[in-house]
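Lab meeting, item 3. Inverse folding demo.
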């Protein structure tokens, strides 16, 4: 049976499960429950080939669609998150607060990230709880946010204007195109489909506008939401070791990969699990 030790009082847990490749269905269901409860779990000491990581991901659900990023050579569902030592001060993939592909109609439910090669220091990942960020707000503020719709777009991440930034990573193939300018609407406050908890479904990486507010209020509200949701009191930070497997819930977190390891190599393997259209118990379905 998986056993969880919380990492903070807000989110995150280190989970002991033995070899994740041998989990039976009961223990896998318990691990899924722990991910939904703690939002991110760290499982140490694993040994996963790309194919084995894909098999584990499939036990959580079908694979999520991964636009713009070419997969690794060993499996079409695995994204090799790799910055070479020679890349120096180049952009760090995932190096801004975001929730994976929230610009999709049905963003990923879970992400699995497995550490293959990590620097001697730096390259940590930080997560923030959008459940705690929601619950910290007063009733009046929440009532004002319930009708608001967030406009998600990848235009400032994967539009052609961003190609030079991504091309600084010599061992990743990221192909930007005009589809990144598309927009997707999601409620700003969503309801988690498995836990029923309300979530402030926001990230500054992909949310570029807010509908339902006076347009003059939008810039200051976006800045306030970013500062609030990434406040240190809602976060946990993980120092990677080879063999670490992190599994997190994209429906209730955002995260940031820190770019403080210039001159060192960092390689992790990422898979995602398909999610569902975000909905809110406070309002009709956004279309």
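The presenter then showed the designed sequence:
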């Amino acid at each position: 049976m998986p056993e969880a030790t919380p990492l903070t009082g807000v989110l995150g847990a280190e989970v002991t499960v033995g070899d994740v490749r041998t989990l039976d269905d009961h223990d896998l269901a318990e691990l899924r429950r722990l991910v939904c409860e703690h939002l991110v779990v760290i499982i140490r000491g694993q040994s996963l080939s790309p194919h084995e990581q894909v098999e584990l991901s499939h036990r959580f659900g079908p694979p999520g669609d991964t636009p713009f990023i070419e997969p690794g050579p060993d499996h079409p569902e695995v994204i090799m998150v790799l910055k070479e030592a020679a890349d120096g001060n180049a952009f760090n993939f995932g190096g801004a607060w975001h929730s994976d592909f929230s610009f999709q109609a049905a963003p990923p439910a879970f992400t699995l990230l497995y550490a293959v090669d990590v620097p001697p220091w730096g390259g940590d990942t930080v997560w923030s709880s959008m459940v705690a960020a929601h619950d910290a707000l007063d009733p009046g503020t929440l009532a004002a946010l319930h009708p608001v719709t967030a406009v998600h777009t990848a235009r400032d991440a994967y539009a052609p204007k961003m190609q030079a930034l991504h091309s600084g990573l010599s061992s990743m193939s990221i192909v930007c195109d005009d589809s990144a300018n598309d927009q997707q609407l999601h409620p700003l406050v969503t309801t988690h489909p498995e836990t029923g908890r309300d979530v402030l479904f926001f990230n500054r990486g992909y949310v570029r506008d807010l509908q339902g507010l006076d347009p003059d209020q939008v810039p200051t509200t976006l800045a306030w939401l970013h500062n609030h949701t990434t406040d240190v009191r809602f976060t946990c930070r993980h120092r990677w070791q080879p063999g670490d497997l992190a599994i997190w819930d994209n429906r209730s977190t955002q995260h940031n990969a820190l770019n403080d390891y210039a001159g060192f190599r960092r390689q992790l393997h990422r898979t995602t699990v398909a999610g569902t259209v975000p909905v809110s118990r406070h309002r009709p379905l956004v279309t």
